[in-house]
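User: Teach me something about this protein's shape.
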Amino acid sequence: MSLPFGLGTGGGEAQSARGWTRWLLAQPSGRWLATAIGLAIIGADLGMGHKAWSGSFARHLACDRATATCVIPLGRLGHAARAVVFLVIGGFLMRAAYEVDPSEAHGLGGALAASTLAAFGTFEFAKALCRCIDTPDERGVLGAARARMA
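Assistant: First, the predicted structure itself:
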């Protein structure tokens, strides 16, 4: 079960993910098999996302209420982050199947890089929409200009 997650042996995880995808795409109906595996990964991802949303993992915790107020949000965040990463892995695999290009497949490292870049880009966009830029008033500009000239 390590192959779909790029955890095979030898040559690094990115090479491993591309290698087994290349092998899979070379098989009869390999494109469809790769698509089915990508959909299965996304299906598992939906389960992880549900755990993050519902907090159902909390029933397996044995801690007091004060500890749970810290642990449950961390669990939600962890499950949500994991869901995003596996969504990206499944998406990469389905793209590789669609384009019949094993180089489109990425393992955990590629998914983390893409997820991190997307999250940071989303943050930067939100920051640009919400940013408050302080502009000096007329007296402040004139005072600063006079101070530089003196």
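Now, about its shape. Residues 1-10 have pLDDT under 50 and may be disordered. DSSP finds five helices and no strands in the chain. If you'd like, I can walk through any region in more detail.
User: That's plenty for now, thanks!
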